[in-house]
Amino acid sequence: SRSINLAVIPGDGIGQEVVAQGLKVLRAVLPQDVKLETREFDFGARRYHATGETLTDADVEALKQHDAILLGAIGDPSVPSGVLERGFLLKLRFLFDHYVNLRPSRLLPGVATPLAGQPEIDFIVVREGTEGPYTGNGGSIRTGTPHEVATEVSVNTAFGVERVVRDAFARAQARPRKKLTLVHKNNVLAYAGHLWTNIFNKVAKEFPDVTTDYLHVDAATIFLVTDPARFDVIVTDNLFGDIITDLAAAVSGGIGVAASGNINPSGAFPSMFEPVHGSAPDIAGQGKADPSATILSVALLLRHLGYDAEAARIEAAVSEDLAARGDSVRTTDEIGDALAVRVAG
Amino acid sequence: SRSINLAVIPGDGIGQEVVAQGLKVLRAVLPQDVKLETREFDFGARRYHATGETLTDADVEALKQHDAILLGAIGDPSVPSGVLERGFLLKLRFLFDHYVNLRPSRLLPGVATPLAGQPEIDFIVVREGTEGPYTGNGGSIRTGTPHEVATEVSVNTAFGVERVVRDAFARAQARPRKKLTLVHKNNVLAYAGHLWTNIFNKVAKEFPDVTTDYLHVDAATIFLVTDPARFDVIVTDNLFGDIITDLAAAVSGGIGVAASGNINPSGAFPSMFEPVHGSAPDIAGQGKADPSATILSVALLLRHLGYDAEAARIEAAVSEDLAARGDSVRTTDEIGDALAVRVAG
Ligand SMILES: CC(C)[C@H](C(=O)O)[C@@H](O)C(=O)O
Ligand SMILES: CC(C)[C@H](C(=O)O)[C@@H](O)C(=O)O
């Protein structure tokens, strides 16, 4: 018999509320014979305030014992900016070698977009998750004086770039349009850009049926608002991926429906799935948060674990639910209930 | 009697065509008593192919003899990516210490935007122009092997950040809404982010009437498409500024109308004014390019040199022209003629 051993991290703010709905839909969609075991972890602002801890060695060992991780949101204004982000979120991405940060963007029927003319949007971004300017490789001298110099080092390796580029080519090849766009800034960031471009061109030879394309990151933001239909799969560096996926989420229905996976394709460590949105403390505890992004993240989680049919059922349910919702204002719980019914039906 | 000694760099592709219109409008708007002297420089792809040069020491000395520089566009597919960008454009920004990269975004009446609902857009971005990841401070080892490591170093100094932040506060203070937003990624790029945030908060105390705000760059891209009206003045680092100003141009009427100034406020070196768009080789020589962005860059140039009334006349003319243009397709030359008539009238 099959089983899923899931680590659950509700986290801060609306994280609690949306994760509850994610689990509700997960339970509703799983076949009877699949045994779901969950263990909840208390990472986030409360734990930090109580103990000063963000993620201990023991936590990491405990998380490792799971097949996957479902995360709500981490972050609170009561904690200095960066402490939880670097001490928990990024730390985990690096420790668990989540080198594929997968972020699909699909504008579903009936969903509002800030763009005029309701364009076709259906692409995925494969953002590198373990290198680039995110390595924490910086420093400062004469800190706090008029002579301070602060640096940040973007670290890029052939090993790190090739594995994520290869993953993106495989994803592009599996899609009908088979098109992959590299986004970088190789005219300015010459060393990193050269590495990315060379490896991209080299790996392209192994995927002759995939059409390739290159855009500078600044130009990519233009096309994301003027012609998002041109994108099928995008592969890009950690920081550029961070920036363009927020923009992509905004144009394809907002962060209320943007899902993401922090994936270690080798399976050496559990992968982590989370909505792109944050903890939204301003609306926390009010039942106002849209759990769709978390529920779509559960679909990515299921697909990662090989439950393709169940993942597709969730995606179809969210799509139908959004198309049918009309103008009614629903609570977090009501949306979760409606989706649980749809996936079970 | 007054005079303007202008260096003119038409450059590549449509650069030639749009600069001709910029000069036409400049001549039309200047009062009789102002003597305009221009010297044309042949930088760009042709010069590079002919001589291998992008910008020599002698060129730099010659450019220094001018009050300002008007640039069309530099870049051509026949030249490897980055050669002209780094060998000319960025080299000049660094040599002439163009630390204020000024990029206004205004959605003018009658101008199409990809955003639904024709939002109010009227903000300026003050992009740092001489530091950050643009310093060319990177390298690679084991280049071209499976063990390559490539780095890019973002260099940020208290001196460099403070002067541009101060400039942005002064610009915000001079505008009716008096609001300044710092855009960075201080939760991840901790050292540079700390420097920027600290200096921003310190300088803010000297401008108590300016409302301040902070956004991570990823969140800023969301607001640029969902609520661009929230922005008045933005100050940001060189790379973030590059990215968000292309997006800003896209939402506020496209790069056909996006102007920019590479400014050295001290006047120690001539400032350079250029459209945000590139050389667009695909439409070069066909009279299809919109010269409005270049003409608006001439307005920024005039304001920089103290010709405020003339700058305002150009801006009003472009605004009226766009509002009145209807559906007619006009050539580059026709738009330039129409604007020359309006500013002279
Ligand atoms: C919270 C932050 C560290 C994170 C990132 O920059 O990666 C977030 O913006 C994201 O995109 O997941
Ligand atoms: C051409 C390139 C070097 C330049 C930049 O990155 O600054 C351009 O994109 C710009 O915004 O002026």
From TrEMBL, chains A, B:
Q: What Enzyme Commission number(s) does the record list for this chain?
A: 1.1.1.85
Q: Where is this chain's protein located in or outside the cell? A: Cytoplasm
* Metabolic or biological pathway: Amino-acid biosynthesis; L-leucine biosynthesis; L-leucine from 3-methyl-2-oxobutanoate: step 3/4
Q: Where does NAD(+) bind?
A: 278-290
Residues that bind substrate, according to the entry?
93, 103, 127, 218
What cofactors are annotated for this protein?
A: Mn(2+); Mg(2+)
Occurrences of domain Isopropylmalate dehydrogenase-like (ranges): 5-339
Q: How is the cofactor bound?
A: Binds 1 Mg(2+) or Mn(2+) ion per subunit.
Q: Which residues bind Mg(2+)?
A: 218, 242, 246
Class of this enzyme? oxidoreductase
Enzymatic reactions: (2R,3S)-3-isopropylmalate + NAD(+) = 4-methyl-2-oxopentanoate + CO2 + NADH
Domain of life (superkingdom): Bacteria
Keyword annotations for this protein? Amino-acid biosynthesis, Branched-chain amino acid biosynthesis, Cytoplasm, Leucine biosynthesis, Magnesium, Manganese, Metal-binding, NAD, Oxidoreductase
Q: Where is this site: Important for catalysis?
A: 134, 185
Tell me its family.
Answer: Belongs to the isocitrate and isopropylmalate dehydrogenases family. LeuB type 2 subfamily.
Its annotated function is as follows:
Catalyzes the oxidation of 3-carboxy-2-hydroxy-4-methylpentanoate (3-isopropylmalate) to 3-carboxy-4-methyl-2-oxopentanoate. The product decarboxylates to 4-methyl-2 oxopentanoate.
Oligomeric state and interaction partners are given as: Homodimer.
Its name, as the record gives it, is 3-isopropylmalate dehydrogenase
Q: What is the lineage of its organism?
A: Bacteria, Bacillati, Actinomycetota, Actinomycetes, Kitasatosporales
